[in-house]
Amino acid sequence: MPGMKDDYEYDAEGDVKMAIPQPIFEVTRAPSLKVWSQSAITTFLRERKQCEGKVIEQCRVTGEVQAAVTRSIRSTLEPRVLEHVAHYLLKQDAASVSDDMLVAEMKRKVGTMLIEDNGLASMLGRGVAIDEQSRQRMKLRCEG
């Protein structure tokens, strides 16, 4: 090519031939939990599941051991969040907290979430779908 050194090999289209193949996978970063709240934990668990799926796929192709590649949940928590959860919720030292304990506490926290009433239940109604006069509830809502 004009104006360039002839240190490189070129293909038929004029592109430089790469000596090192480009990486197959992108860098996968484990999500981190910065706040101990229901919404943050829900987001963290969802992102963690997606990240683990990517790692499983990568390990299947490359032959790596998944346990060696995946970061522990304990290491993805901010240090102050880990200290808070260990001291106040689990009543243990932060060094003795395991991933299983953290997952159980996260599921307990998310499992007690209350779904706020956004009016959908009152529109659909509660109880049986057919009233005493054998009319369906949704048809009643659409008629008038």
Name the shape in a single word: elongated
Number of helices: 7
Distance N to C terminus: 76 Å
How is the biggest beta sheet arranged? none
Radius of gyration: 27 Å
Give me the secondary-structure category: mainly alpha
What proportion strand?
under 5%
Written as H for each helix and E for each strand, in order along the chain, the element string is HHHHHHH
Number of strands: 0
Regions with pLDDT < 50 over 5+ consecutive residues? none
Oligomer type: single chain
Kindly state the percentage of residues in helix: 40-55%
Overall mean pLDDT: 80
Overview in brief:
This protein has helices at residues 38-62, 66-69, 73-76, 79-89, 99-111, 120-124, 137-143. It is mainly alpha-helical.
Overall description:
- It is a single chain.
- The protein has 144 residues and is mainly alpha-helical.
- The chain has a domain of 74 residues.
- It contains 7 helices and no strands.
Topology (elements, then pairings):
Blueprint: H1 38-62, H2 66-69, H3 73-76, H4 79-89, H5 99-111, H6 120-124, H7 137-143
Question: Top keywords for this entry?
Answer:
single chain, 144 residues, mainly alpha, elongated
